[in-house]
Amino acid sequence: MSIDRIVMAFAGIVVLVGLALSLAFSPWWLIVPAFVGANLTQAAFTGFCPLAILLKLIGVKPGCAFQ
């Protein structure tokens, strides 16, 4: 699995968990998916993604987006 797919899967899981927590406990949990969306948007324009950097350091093969 490449860095690109891991980043997308992680982002999707965090968004879904944030939505579930907002339904179960408090609407304030919607801050989590909003942060993920903002981070994905800035990564699309700048190429900077902390998770991608960490995955590259531990030896995961890069995809076409995070080389």
Summarize the structure in short.
By secondary structure, this protein is mainly alpha-helical. Helix content is 69%, strand content 0%.
Can you characterise this structure?
With 67 residues, this protein is mainly α. The protein has one domain (3-57). It has 3 helices and no strands. The protein has helices spanning 3-24, 31-46, 50-57. Helix 1 (3-24) runs antiparallel to helix 2 (31-46). The longest helix has 22 residues, at 3-24. The radius of gyration is 13 Å and the shape is elongated. It starts with a helix and ends in a 10-residue tail after the last helix. The model has no long low-confidence stretch (mean pLDDT 92).
Which SSEs are present, and which pair or pack?
Layout: H1 3-24, H2 31-46, H3 50-57
Helix pairs in contact: 1-2
Question: Cα distance, first to last residue?
Answer: 14 Å
Tell me, rounded to a whole number, the average pLDDT. 92
Strand content: under 5%
| Tally of helical segments | 3
Biggest β-sheet: count, sense, barrel? Answer: none
The low-confidence parts are none
Number of discrete domains = 1
Q: What is the string of SSEs from the N terminus onward?
A: HHH
Q: What is the approximate shape?
A: elongated
Helix amount: 55-70%
How many distinct beta strands?
0
Classification by helices and strands: mainly alpha
Rg, Å, rounded: 13 Å
